Amino acid sequence: MALLHRADIRPTKLDLLAAWLPSRGWYVGGAEVARVAAYRFDDPEGQVGIETLLVRGGDGPVHQVPLTYRGAPLDGADEWLVGTTEHSVLGRRWVYDAVGDPVYAAALATAILAGTGQAEEYFEVDGRREVRPPSMGITSDTPPVDVPPVGAVRRVVDGDPTLIVTDTVELAVIRRPGPAAAPAGATLTGTWDDVRAPLAYAAPR
Known about the structure:
The protein is mostly beta strands.
């Protein structure tokens, strides 16, 4: 489960993305970035926030941007840093393009290969749990299997799709979800509004 906080965040996630996305070769869109939908994964250690945003820049296509939120810098991941924010509850947060974060790689592999799905999101309100309905759904097309430890992220090829190579699995993250030929491997599919499209793929090494 993902505990959310009613907090002020400066700059906002969309402000960060509006400044960062134009630097990506796979981004097609304007400077005004709007949220379309989102889903989250759980970090078993409870230390890293893992959220994937679907956003659109102006009249451009929908883009998938997985992010991780950390309370301290991730060693060796400067090239994946989107920026930092000040969170009124949690303090300074380092925001990363999650494709370079091993915690995201492990969560994505588990969601696809073990079928764990997305995290339930909730607020604590007067000691009660208030669940926030999801803005989209995700499903895996493969029978669940045991997922070996992913280990380190060994290589990232930043394109569309973005390839993530780890010790035990190769992952592909679709940056502009839509009709596309599927690479070999199990598929994570997303549904939002009236759209159904592949989001990511996984194949054991």
